[in-house]
Design a protein that fits this description.
Elements lengths: L6 H19 L2 H17 L3 E2 H7 L8 H10 L3 E9 L9 E7 L1 H19 L12 H4 L15 H9 L22
Antiparallel strand pairs: 1-3, 2-3
Helix pairs in contact: 2-4
Length: 184
Amino acid sequence: MTRRLTVAERLASAEKDLLLADIADQSSWDRLLVEQAVFHIGQQHDEWSCNLLRDLLPKLAHGFLGAVINGLRTSGVIEHTGQYVPSTSPATHGHPIAVWKLSVKGVVIARERQIARRLAKQQQPAVIVCYSRCWPCQFDQHYDPPQPHPWAGDEDIEHARATGQPEPTGNCACSCARTEDGAA
C-alpha cells in the first residue's frame, strides 16, 4: 500500500517543481555564463568543486549550476574524480559536493577555445577549428616555424586504403599549418 503525502510534503514537492520550472524558463545567457565559468575553472585547476564556481557567478546563475554541471557530465565534457568536499554554501549546511575535472573532450574544447582567442588577439585570419587536425597538433606539438603539413597520418592513409576509401588529403586546420603570410 502506498503512503499518502502530507500537506507539507505536497507543498514542498510543488515548490520544487516551481523552482525547476523557473530555472528552465531562465534565459540561455545564464546557462552559457555557467558553462563559461566551468571552462575557466577547468583550465585554471586540475580539479575543482562548485564552491569555486559559486564565487564567480552572479546570484541569478546559481540556479543553473547543478543543471549545467549535470549536462556537461552527461555530454562527456567534465568527469567526476570520485572525491567529495563539504559545500561552502550556507544553504546546504556543508553537505558533500562532487569534485570535478575536465575530461579529455573538455580539454580539447578548452584548448581550441584558447587557440581561437589567441588568434583573435593577434588579428590573424580565422582558422576553421575542426577534427581535421594532425595528431601532434591535437596535443599542442606544433610546427615552429609554422608550415603547411597534412592532417592525415600513416594510420589514416592505411585505414582509407584498407576500407576502399580515397586517400585523405588536405592540410592540418591548426594555426601552425599557416605560414607568416597566412597561406596554408
